[in-house]
Each structure stands twice: as C-alpha cells, then as structure tokens.
Design a protein that fits this description.
By secondary structure, the chain is an alpha/beta fold. The chain has a single domain (about 1-270), classed as 3-Layer(aba) Sandwich (Rossmann fold), CATH 3.40.50. It contains six helices and nine strands; from the N terminus they run H-E-E-E-E-H-E-E-H-E-H-E-H-E-H. It has a five-stranded mixed barrel with strand order 5-8-7-6-9, surrounded by four helices. It is globular and about 55 Å long. It binds hypoxanthine (HPA). The site of hypoxanthine has 13 residues, from strand 5, strand 8 and strand 9. This is Purine nucleoside phosphorylase. Belongs to the PNP/MTAP phosphorylase family. Pathway: Purine metabolism; purine nucleoside salvage.
Length: about 270
C-alpha cells in the first residue's frame, strides 16, 4: 500500500511543481464553495491521479485543489469518498494518507450532518469534539502499515483541543452560530428511522452523518492534529423530523457554507 501512496504522491508533486501544502482540507456535501476563497495554483481531477478512487456522487465534484487560503498553502479535497458508495476503507482514506505524505501538518474536515441534540438548529455549525464509530469497519483493520503509524493508536483526543478552542474563540468573535458536540458515523446511504435517531441520541451523539470518522482515524494514526466541523442540515429530534431529501440538505449546507468557510479560513490563518 505504501508504494501506491508513494506513486500517487510523486505524481501530484510532479504535476504541481512541487507545491508544498501546510494544511489539508476536506470539503463535505454542499460545502464546495470554500474553493472560491482559495487563490488556486493547481487543480487535479481525482480521475487523473494514479490509484485515487473516483467519486460517484453528483454533489461531489472530485478534485484536489492546491493554493492559498488565509495566506497559507493548502491542499483541498473537493469531494470525498464514502463507505456507502462501495469503496473499502483503504480507498476512503487513500487521499488523507496522500495529503500526509505531501507534508500537511494539520487536517481540517467538514461534513453535512443530521442534528440529534434538541438545542441545535438547521444550518448551524457543530465543532466536533469527539466521535462514535458505528461503521462496520475502519481503515486500520488488517496488517498495520508501520511507516504510517502505530498498531494501536491512542484515541483519547482525536480532535485537537487547541484547534477546538481556537475555533470556538473565532466563532464568538464573529458571532457565528456554532455549537459543539459528538459526531456519530453510520454507513448509510439511507437516512435513519425515528427509532435509530432516538438510539443515536441515547448513546451520546449530537449529530449523525456518513463520513469523517474513517478519515479522522487514518489522520490520528499518522499523528496529524485534526479539526472537524459539521453543518447541521436537518433536525432529527422528535417533533422536528421531516422527510429528508438531498435538495434540502444541499440548501441547508449552502446557507451555512459562508460561516463554515469563514471559520476554517480564520482558523488556518491562526496556525
Ligand atoms: N443522517 C445521516 N447523515 C446525514 C443526515 C442525517 O440525518 N443529514 C445529513 N447527513
């Protein structure tokens, strides 16, 4: 696997004139507009990068973008790979591992999620403080790749406390509607039943989604500090549950997108 990662990394270095990203950013469903704030220097289609999986979801455009955000060098994944698309976990986290080999020092992740905490509202942001993995597997199953990280990585602080407090400070200063809480990952692609929403809330989750956790596990395995934020696109508490359609999720994400972009940009500026 390390050889496939190395080949992808070498190809990217070649194609980007050895651009050196300091930070990696993963953009979630409906959150691609952050790239409008980037001074783009290079852009590569996933399809052109050796060994990269190819995105199958229409709302994800599938590009690796290199440039400046908040004055810093970033590599941004516009579109990610979900377990429900049929990729295995190694494929889901392949780009995260490549970004680490490219030299990123921190990882910033975003996603769209359903709100389980009754204090939340649609289009608010939730800074992720911890997670629960309810996917049936994870990217570290199998022989450990010692070049990437240890067999039994610690998970006591998957989301960097310093980044979390910086983000909450930025949110307060800019009066952004930002909450914090626990994210639970489920396989999808169907949304949850009412009973499942109640269960997820009871086990301690504040938001539910179909991504992020595998990427965070792979990043933590490699020693990368992680910051992650959910955009609450629909409310999943009794009395507020509506039929969810992708269009509503995209609309709620679009509404929150400027706040998320501001938060991530200001956070990157502070590093
Ligand atoms: N459940 C799971 N994933 C989601 C949801 C949800 O309610 N909303 C956005 N992504």
């Amino acid at each position: 696997m390390i050889q496939l990662l190395q080949e992808a990394t070498d190809f990217i270095r070649q194609q980007t004139n050895h651009f050196q990203p300091d930070f990696g950013v993963v953009l979630g469903t409906g959150l691609g507009a952050l790239v409008n704030d980037i001074e783009v220097q290079h852009s590569l289609n996933y399809a052109d990068i050796p060994h990269f999986p190819v995105s199958t979801v229409e709302s994800h455009s599938g590009k690796l973008i290199f440039g400046k955000l908040g004055g810093r060098n970033v590599v941004v994944m516009q579109g990610r790979f979900h377990f429900y698309e049929g990729y295995n976990m190694e494929q889901v986290v392949f780009p995260i591992r490549v970004m680490k080999l490219l030299g990123i020092q921190k990882l910033f992740v975003s996603n769209a999620a359903g709100g389980l905490n009754p204090e939340f509202n649609t289009s608010e942001l939730m800074v992720i403080t911890d997670h629960i993995n309810l996917l049936p597997t994870n990217p570290l199953i199998g022989k450990n790749v010692d070049e990437l990280g240890p067999r039994f990585p610690d998970m006591s602080e998957p989301y960097n406390e310093h980044l979390i407090s910086q983000a909450l400070d930025i949110a307060a200063r800019h009066q952004l509607p930002v909450k914090s809480g626990v994210y639970v990952s489920v396989p999808g692609p169907m949304l949850e039943t009412k009973a499942e929403y109640r269960y997820l809330s009871n086990i301690g989750a504040d938001a539910v989604g179909m991504s992020t956790v595998p990427e965070v596990i792979a990043a933590v395995h490699m020693g990368l500090p992680v910051f992650a934020v959910s955009v609450i696109t629909d409310m999943c508490v009794p009395g507020k549950i509506k039929k969810v359609v992708l269009l509503d999720i995209l609309e709620a994400a679009a509404k929150a997108e400027p706040n998320m972009t501001l938060l991530i940009k200001e956070l990157i500026k502070r590093q």
